């Protein structure tokens, strides 16, 4: 008995799907390579690595201060949820503008402005009481994580892996925010945002030290 008849000249659907995935990967690789050539001159100054490390330390300190402030219950006078994220985002944008002058690194500046936006969101609604504010919070966190990953993957120096890894790790903050909202004990959004900024700060420190040896 002969087996089931198979149409001739029509490859299986899996082959079509695999071919499409490969085509997509080739396109993404081409986009990344083209982007690397465009940003190849970034952070090549003799002291840029120090400024990056200093920026990373500032962001890390602000994040740790926020985490300690919330976990230890030692509410600092005048502190309000989100204020450290606003300060950190502004410093990130300003320092990157100085580093890139006269060129503007729009992706880095956007990352700083997203931090500012997250901070203002918590200033207006510290506990994200509405569904819309929580959804916007998660969306902005996802945009920060995506930008970190994109910048890290498209950098032409080995330190870019720090940002890429930090961006991928930052996606966990979104899951943490979702679980913390509906599970007990409740996790304050300010803690989640501080953790996101902590990953960003540590990634920038790693980028700075790695770019030190780059010619």
Automatic annotation (TrEMBL):
<keyword id="KW-0472">Membrane</keyword>
<feature type="transmembrane region" description="Helical">
    <location>
        <begin position="129"/>
        <end position="148"/>
    </location>
</feature>
<feature type="transmembrane region" description="Helical">
    <location>
        <begin position="160"/>
        <end position="179"/>
    </location>
</feature>
<keyword id="KW-0812">Transmembrane</keyword>
<feature type="transmembrane region" description="Helical">
    <location>
        <begin position="78"/>
        <end position="97"/>
    </location>
</feature>
<keyword id="KW-1133">Transmembrane helix</keyword>
<feature type="transmembrane region" description="Helical">
    <location>
        <begin position="52"/>
        <end position="72"/>
    </location>
</feature>
<feature type="transmembrane region" description="Helical">
    <location>
        <begin position="191"/>
        <end position="209"/>
    </location>
</feature>
<feature type="transmembrane region" description="Helical">
    <location>
        <begin position="104"/>
        <end position="123"/>
    </location>
</feature>
<feature type="transmembrane region" description="Helical">
    <location>
        <begin position="15"/>
        <end position="32"/>
    </location>
</feature>
<protein>
    <submittedName>
        <fullName>Uncharacterized protein</fullName>
    </submittedName>
</protein>
């Amino acid at each position: 008995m002969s087996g089931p008849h198979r149409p001739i000249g029509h490859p299986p659907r899996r082959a079509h799907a695999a071919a499409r995935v490969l085509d997509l990967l080739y396109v993404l690789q081409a986009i990344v390579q083209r982007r690397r050539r465009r940003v190849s001159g970034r952070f090549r100054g003799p002291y840029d690595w120090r400024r990056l490390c200093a920026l990373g330390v500032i962001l890390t300190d602000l994040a740790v201060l926020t985490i300690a402030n919330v976990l230890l219950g030692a509410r600092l006078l005048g502190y309000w949820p989100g204020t450290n994220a606003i300060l950190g985002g502004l410093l990130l944008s300003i320092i990157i503008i100085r580093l890139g002058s006269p060129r503007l690194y729009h992706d880095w500046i956007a990352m700083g402005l997203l931090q500012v936006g997250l901070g203002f969101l918590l200033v207006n609604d510290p506990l994200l009481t509405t569904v819309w504010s929580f959804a916007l919070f998660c969306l902005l966190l996802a945009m920060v994580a995506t930008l970190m990953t994109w910048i890290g993957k498209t950098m032409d120096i080995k330190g870019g892996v720090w940002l890429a890894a930090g961006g991928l790790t930052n996606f966990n903050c979104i899951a943490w925010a979702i679980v913390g909202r509906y599970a007990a004990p409740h996790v304050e959004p300010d803690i989640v945002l501080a953790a996101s900024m902590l990953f960003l700060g540590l990634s920038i420190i790693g980028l700075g030290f790695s770019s030190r040896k780059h010619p």
